[in-house]
Design brief:
Layout (H helix, E strand, L loop, with lengths): L16 H13 L3 H12 L20 H11 L6 H5 L1 E3 L5 E3 L2 H9 L4 H23 L5 H24 L5 H4 L1 H6 L1 H4 L9 H10 L11 H15 L33 H6 L37 H5 L17 H15 L19
Antiparallel strand pairs: 1-2
């Protein structure tokens, strides 16, 4: 072994291709990556080939057949799937179908492709957001977007309105098909049907504190208006230490440059003794900020004697007004006298424990 050896480089953990596909789908559609990731975790536990037992839902985001055909029909030309999009047609009732069975199977198999599924989920999220915003008159939160993913935008708006008008109403009555396919959401473990408010809480719980992408143009306009209104407010006064005229950077302990004013007037007031006029405002005179001894019985302190008497004699020095040390607090004097009295008391002899000992020698 050489004296100076180069340590082996640590291999970085391989990135998850499923997570990368969700991130790319979020970037291509403008949807929130955090929202799409939590939705995929809730729907399929990040299993691309997951399939529901009670419906035709398949893939990372559990798209049912009609919803998937609708998204491929709308978003396919933008994502290089124009041939598949042209193969999808709608009948008079609006139901989508594909005439060629082989082509239909290929289109439905795309639900198991993480890249395609993430892009379609992001596009569906943006579509549901716009529809809910138009219906509710506000931007939906992440939990309400997930409700639209499960119930559709119309079903999500109906559930939100039911929570506001009749929160105790049984939700399974309004959504029988969704309740049959998602019993864990509409019924508890004992089989009791949950109310509209309870279903709202169950669906919103998995997406609490989830970050969403930027809002639509209407939402961005509202945000810009809010920022403009904040900009018109008067600026907040900053502390003296942060003012432009203050010394730049950190001021050293022995710095002689910069302002001598306190950093904050509030801090100066907190560290100032109450003045004779019962106010606690910081005095401008430095001598008043070091706890000077107050005059007793109206007599002036010796250090602050009138200067007129000294000015009568030219040879007499002029006394300087300097602060005196603080007097001893009364509490400390009383405590010292109590300790002196306790020290004067006679101490008892230590307790003799030999009389309590049991003799084990047998004598």
């Amino acid at each position: 072994m050489f004296l100076f050896t180069t340590p082996q480089t640590r291999e970085t953990a391989p990135t998850n291709p499923i997570v990368n596909a969700i991130r790319e789908g979020a970037e291509r559609t403008g949807a929130g990556f955090d929202y799409l990731l939590k939705t995929a975790q809730r729907e399929s536990a990040l299993e691309p080939d997951a399939k529901a037992r009670t419906s035709s839902a398949t893939g990372l985001f559990q798209f049912i057949e009609q919803t998937w055909l609708s998204m491929v029909k709308q978003e396919g030309p933008k994502q290089g799937l124009a041939n598949y999009a042209n193969a999808i047609s709608a009948d008079e009732s609006g139901r989508l179908s594909v005439s060629d069975p082989a082509t239909r199977e290929k289109i439905l198999q795309l639900r198991n492709d993480p890249q395609v599924a993430a892009v379609m989920a992001g596009a569906l999220t943006q579509k549901n957001r716009d529809q809910l915003a138009a219906t509710l008159g506000r931007q939906p939160n992440a939990g309400e977007l997930y409700m639209a993913h499960v119930l559709g935008s119309r079903g999500a708006s109906d559930l939100i309105r039911a929570v506001g008008s009749d929160p105790t109403r049984v939700a399974a009555r309004d959504f029988p098909d969704a309740a049959a396919a998602n019993r864990g959401i509409f019924f508890d473990k004992s089989g009791r049907a949950r109310s509209a408010q309870e279903v709202y809480g169950v669906l919103a719980a998995s997406h609490a504190n989830t970050q969403l992408a930027a809002a639509t143009a209407t939402g961005e306009a509202k945000v810009a208006t809010a920022y403009a209104s904040q900009a018109s407010d008067p600026p907040v006064e900053i502390a003296a230490a942060l003012s432009p005229g203050r010394a730049k950077g950190l001021i050293g302990l022995f710095s002689t440059e910069g302002s001598r004013q306190p950093v904050s007037k509030a801090v100066a007031n907190l560290w100032t003794t109450p003045r004779s006029d019962a106010s606690r405002l910081a005095a401008l005179d430095p001598a008043d900020r070091f706890f000077p001894r107050q005059a007793q019985s109206g007599a002036a302190p010796a250090a602050t004697a009138p200067v007129e008497a000294a000015s009568a004699s030219a040879a007499a020095p002029v006394p300087v007004s300097a602060p005196l040390p603080p007097s001893r607090p009364v509490d400390l004097s009383q405590a010292a006298s109590v300790q002196a009295k306790q020290a004067a008391r006679p101490r008892r002899a230590p307790l003799n424990l030999s009389s309590f000992m049991i003799q084990r020698s047998g004598t």
